[in-house]
Amino acid sequence: MSAPPSPAAPGAPLVVVMGVSGSGKSTVGAALAQRLGVPYADADDFHPDANIAKMSAGHALDDTDRGPWLDAVGAWLADHDASGGVMSCSALKVAYRDQLRHHAPRAELVHLEGTREVIARRQASRPGHFMPASLLDSQFATLEPLGPHEPGQVISVDQSVDAIVQAYVDQHTTTESRTR
Ligand SMILES: Nc1ncnc2c1ncn2[C@@H]1O[C@H](COP(=O)(O)OP(=O)(O)O)[C@@H](O)[C@H]1O
Ligand SMILES: O=C(O)[C@H](O)[C@@H](O)[C@H](O)[C@H](O)COP(=O)(O)O
């Protein structure tokens, strides 16, 4: 009898950087992808025009708006399963993260956690973005923080981008060596 196929070699990390608007997903996601040497994408670029128009007009998205968008984000993750990659995506609810993990089961989450005060200040100081500051309350109301049963890390936004990236790398390395 032939030996069963050996499991696929573990690939580079496949990461979703999550959090409310203004938490630093795009900034940290791009920096993390560069550090890991993997492709990067921003879920903002996967929204249909109708979603962008709705948010620009000051209305929060609902589950129906987010469903097809999350499938498109999940498809990118699935396409990058072998190479690894980093995606910035709000992924506010557990159900949304389950939807992403359905497409890409090995995806891990990095939740950028911070107070409303700090994040509102950062969001307000960001020029020319379609997302109005008025939607921040609804983002926090919708947010279901990354739970202990979900693979990934919660990292405070109250530190430099470099320090956040380093915190990810340190924790990831520790977890890898523990499971090896
Ligand atoms: N750790 C950080 N420290 C200071 N400023 C930050 C940090 N992370 C992000 N920013 C700034 O905060 C603003 C929001 O970040 P951004 O990456 O656009 O957030 P998101 O993609 O989650 O909406 C930007 O102006 C960005 O430069
Ligand atoms: O699910 C949502 O409500 C949106 O995806 C939202 O969470 C996202 O944050 C916006 O696309 C704004 O973009 P920024 O997060 O870059 O502000």
From TrEMBL:
Keywords: ATP-binding, Gluconate utilization, Kinase, Nucleotide-binding, Transferase. It catalyses: D-gluconate + ATP = 6-phospho-D-gluconate + ADP + H(+). Pathway: Carbohydrate acid metabolism. Transmembrane segments: none annotated. Its EC number is 2.7.1.12. GO terms for cellular component: cytoplasm. GO terms for molecular function: ATP binding; gluconokinase activity. One of its GO terms (biological process) is D-gluconate metabolic process. Coiled coil: none annotated. Belongs to the gluconokinase GntK/GntV family. This is Gluconokinase. The lineage of its organism: Bacteria, Bacillati, Actinomycetota, Actinomycetes, Propionibacteriales.
